[in-house]
Amino acid sequence: MVRLTIDLIAKSRNHFKKKRGLSFQDYLKTLTHLHFFSRSIEDIGDLSMCRNLTVLYLYDNQITHICNLGFASNLTHLYMQNNNITRIENLSNLQRLSKLYLGGNMIAVVEGLETLCELKELHLESQRLAPGEKLLLDPMTLLSLAKSLCVLNINNNNIDDIRDLTVLKELQRFSAADNRLHSMEELEDVFSHWPHLLEMDLGGNPVCKKPKYRDRLITVCKSLKVLNGREIKELNRQFLINWKASKEAKKKTNNKHLIGGPLSSYPSLTNDFNVGQGPHPGHVCSHANVQRWRPQQPLRAQK
C-alpha cells in the first residue's frame, strides 16, 4: 500500500532538494505546496511537520479516507477529486480552507463542513453512486456555508430537488448539469433567492425542454450573465422583463373586469336599486329573487 508520509516526500525528486545549511526538517516547515497526484496513494500518514502547508494536491489516487490533516490549519486549497472517498470527515480544523475539490469520489451525503466558515468553492461533481442513489446535501451543512460559498458544482449526481440550496444566497457560479431537475417553478423559487448569481449551467436536465425555459430563468435571475454556456445580452433580458410586466398588468386588468362585470351587464336591474324605484306592489324583493331574475327572451314567431 502506498502511503503519503514524510519519507515519501524525502524520496520525491519534485520536492526536497538539499540546500547548503537547510536541513530536511527545516524544509518541511517552509513547505507550502505539496504535489502528490496520480501516485496510487491509498492513505495519508503523519505530515504534521508540514505546518505551513497551504495547498495539497492529492487528486487521481486511491485514497479511501480523509485523515491526518488536523495539523494543516493554514490549508486553503485541497484537491482530492477522483479517489475512493465515501465520506467527508476530519476537516473541522481546516478553518481557512477556501476551495475543496471532491468530485469523482463515492460520496452519498455532503456533510461535515460545518466549521469551514471561509469555504468559497465546493466541487462535488460525478460521484460514483449506487444505481438509483442520488447525492444528498445535509441542511445543517448548507446553512453553515450560506454566508461564504460562492461556487457550487454538483453536476451528474442524479439530483431531482434543490430546494434545500435556497439558503446559499452568496452563490455566484452554480453547476447542476446532467441531473434530473424537472420543476420549473422550483427553480424559479430557488434562484429568486440568489441575487449575486453570474453563471449557471443546467444543461442535460429534463427542465431544459420546458417551454420558455431560458426566458423564464433570465427574468428571475437579474444578475445572470451566462446560462448553459451562452452569454445573456442585457437588451434581451430587458425585453423579457418588460414583456413579463406587461403580461402581468394585462392579467390584473382582466381580473378587475371580471369582478365588476355581472351586475353592470343588467342596467335595468341596477337602475331599480340605485335610483330608488320600488318594487311592484305586493312583490317581495329578496336576494333570492334577484339571483333568479333573468332578462325575458323575445317570443319566437310561430311558423
UniProtKB/TrEMBL annotation:
Domain of life the protein comes from: Eukaryota
Keywords noted in UniProt: Leucine-rich repeat, Repeat
InterPro entries: Leu-rich_rpt, LRR_dom_sf, SDS22/Internalin_LRR
SMART domains: LRR_SD22 (SM00365)
Membrane spanning residue stretches: none
Region (Disordered): 277-303
Pfam families reported in the protein's UniProt record: LRR_8 (PF13855), LRR_9 (PF14580)
Record's protein name: Protein phosphatase 1 regulatory subunit 42
Organism: Perca flavescens (American yellow perch)
